[in-house]
Amino acid sequence: MAKFKKNILCIGAGYVGGPTMAVIAAKCPDYKVTVVDINKDRIKAWKTDNLPIYEPGLLEIVKKARGKNLFFSTDVEKEIKENEIIFVSVNTPTKTFGEGAGKAADLQYWEKTARNILKNSESDKIIIEKSTLPVRTAEAMERILNSGEKKIHFEVLSSPEFLAEGTAIKDLLNPDRVLVGSRETPGGIKARNEIVEIYANWIPKEKILTTNVWSSELSKLVANAFLAQRISSINAISALCEKTEADVDEISRAIGHDSRIGAKFLRPSIGFGGSCFKKDILNLSYIAESYGLHEVAEYWQNVIKLNDYQAARFVKNMLKSMFNTVAGKKIALFGFAFKANTGDTRETPALAVTKMLLEERAEIIITDPKALHEAKRDLADIKKGVTLEEDVYKAAKGSHAIAIMTEWDSYKTLDYEKIYKSMEKPAFIFDGRNILNHKKLYDIGFNVYPIGKTPLSHL
Ligand code: NAD
Ligand code: UGA
């Protein structure tokens, strides 16, 4: 068997563990990288060309390394024993029960992993938190790991992941920065240097930031909170634009040119979704609250409040423009994924919109190029009023309105003349992502309702 320079293990083969380890393996052919998970189906899928997650460029990267220096396994215990560097990227969802329900991070998967590492270790190890965790979790991890009788030293580090879904491979290959946090002790700094060395195989040194372990843990929550806050800020302004004939896209452009503000993350929408923004802000707010910082907690809570308001406002606008009733009307939702280029639907605003429209007794037809399987799972409890349709033209046929939920590129270039002809009249388009050519649609005959702009209506 080939001898490898380093052996790296990752516990958790999800959206983060799979892609990050595939990139490490591809960029470091002399390291052996193993990814383990308790979910047998997921591991089975990682071994095929039908990967468990959709991410552009992922399959190519996996195929490059799989079987050579990238391996997937369910034998968590054996791999813990055999590896000295262990990344932990298990899920850390919002707690749904007991103390802190609906706010705090649910650390049960993380704690089980820590105990498993302790139980199965026979030599010193570096443990790296890759999951997003509350600040000072490393301390709890150290306590668990050092509670055993074995004379083994565990150095706990934090190296949070900043990839975004849909661009994960690009983000991993060329990140703005990576972060490695450790204790400022000789052992901590030595371990930190070992992890820096891994990233330095393809990431320029100046982009590898090192901090103390608490700053690293908290930076991850803060980065997500700041990004989400920008979306809520521009969405708040979109509501004001609709009242004043200002155009929110023009405002994004105007303020984005200020280098202190920057142009990114100023796209108005029906609200942010995804598995992390909401959960991480709830967690940040909960942590602040637990230190008695009520004003800080409330400040961040408002980012989520505004996000919920934006989806509700979108549905209210639909209702108002469609003569105050959508009961019995067919409404085609274009897109169900929480953003383009992913099949992920976790916390998708499209689900909130679907539920609100169902309350109004509309008939919903959902189409999405990648997320219909997930949509079926998410909507399993809803017995009436929702149909899933792969073909976007069939989804629109006979409908009273189209609502754009996800900014898929393919929706920009559809034959809207054909779609218009197949719809009930008056035909409405509600562009929840401002991706379509509104003037063109209006000229075809649609009544067009963008976000944060004056509607173009024939009525
Ligand atoms: P995920 O649910 O897709 O994957 C987590 C995996 O961990 C699952 O497959 C689960 O079976 C496995 N797991 C749970 N307990 C285990 C155990 N005891 N032993 C072995 N495997 C176990 O989650 P994800 O989206 O990859 O997120 C993981 C972490 O990374 C979270 O903390 C998240 O906040 C963070 N994060 C996610 C993203 C993202 O884009 N999804 C980006 C940055 C950070
Ligand atoms: C986000 C962060 O961008 C990543 O850095 C982070 O690692 C990740 O969360 C995480 O911790 O999980 P992700 O949720 O995958 O990544 O995707 P984003 O591109 O951030 O989009 C999040 C949501 O905001 C989507 O619903 C998107 O449509 C929406 N969005 C984004 C807007 O409404 N407007 C924008 O200008 C940008």
Could you give a quick summary of the protein structure above?
The protein is an alpha/beta fold. Helix content is 42%, strand content 14%.
Question: What layout of secondary structure does this protein have?
Answer:
Layout lengths: L5 E6 L5 H11 L3 E6 L3 H7 L11 H8 L4 E4 L2 H7 L2 E4 L19 H13 L4 E5 L7 H9 L8 E5 L9 H6 L4 E5 L3 H14 L8 E5 H32 L3 H9 L20 H14 L3 H28 L8 E5 L14 H11 L3 E5 L4 H7 L7 E3 L3 H5 L4 E4 L11 H7 L5 E4 L6 H7 L2 E3 L10
Parallel strand pairs: 1-2, 1-4, 2-3, 4-5, 5-6, 7-8, 9-10, 9-12, 10-11, 12-13, 13-14
Helix pairs in contact: 1-3, 9-11, 9-12, 11-12, 12-13
Give an overview in words.
The protein is of the alpha/beta class and 459 residues long. The protein folds into 3 domains: 6-203, NAD(P)-binding Rossmann-like Domain (Rossmann fold, 3-Layer(aba) Sandwich); 222-305, N-(1-d-carboxylethyl)-l-norvaline Dehydrogenase, domain 2, CATH 1.10.1040.10; 314-449, Rossmann fold, CATH 3.40.50.720. It has helices at residues 17-27, 40-46, 58-65, 76-82, 108-120, 137-145, 168-173, 186-199, 213-244, 248-256, 277-290, 294-321, 349-359, 372-378, 392-396, 416-422, 438-444; strands spanning 6-11, 31-36, 70-73, 85-88, 125-129, 154-158, 178-182, 208-212, 330-334, 363-367, 386-388, 401-404, 428-431, 447-449. α17 (438-444) links the parallel β13 and β14 (447-449). The longest helix has 32 residues, at 213-244. The model has no long low-confidence stretch (mean pLDDT 97). Residues 132, 161-165, 224, 227, 231, 265-267, 269, 272-274, 276-277, 338-339 line the site of uridine-5'-diphosphate-glucuronic acid (UGA).
